[in-house]
Amino acid sequence: MNAQGKLIVRSFSVSFDGYGAGPDQSLDTPLGVGGFGLHQWAMGTRTFQKKVFGKDGGATGPDDDLAAMGFENLGAWIMGRNMFGPVRGAWPDESWKGWWGEEPPYHCPVFVLTHHARAPITMRGGTVFHFVTDGIEAALDRARQAAGSKDIRVGGGVATIREYLRAGLIDDLHIAMSPVLLGRGEALFEGIDLSVLGYTVREHVATPSAMHLRFHRKD
């Protein structure tokens, strides 16, 4: 029997004051006001240029090494509905298929947490969006079945990561603290005591663009 993969968070950016998204999220500002600045450390890396933008080139070095780690050995993703798209409530139609165009950067099954059922969406490149209405553990069970021995990445947003953290289900967490201040928005660790939940800092790497912190949950 193959070993079970880990549930991981990779390359999740927060501001120095702890916000993983800015206020007033909308179709025009999906990351909230000022939220795009959280991800500047990653945008120019070779990994993001290739995986997200489909382009050659880009910067190498520690930022790129950590960005690349987030795409290794993945068999499935989990995300919240807010990360999938701006639509709220019952799906008014099925024209919205995500922010990423016809070929999203996932290339494996993606399980979207929602309160409203929707048929799966098959995209180019192997991405299939499945919509899960019965909670985070059901989504994780389905993702494990799809991933086999590979890892499952929780892509976000903030609320989804917080739910999995509170449940003690995330095995390994990589946070990139970007040198920006948002003042308000969605606070990633508000009300969460990582030490009580069994997490410790296993690595920290400082670059000119971010402070990278990796947390590991004790068995």
From TrEMBL:
It comes from the Bacteria. Residues 11-207 form the Bacterial bifunctional deaminase-reductase C-terminal domain. It comes from Afipia felis ATCC 53690. This is Bacterial bifunctional deaminase-reductase C-terminal domain-containing protein. InterPro entries: DHFR-like_dom_sf (IPR024072), RibDG_C (IPR002734), Riboflavin_Biosynth_HTPR (IPR050765).
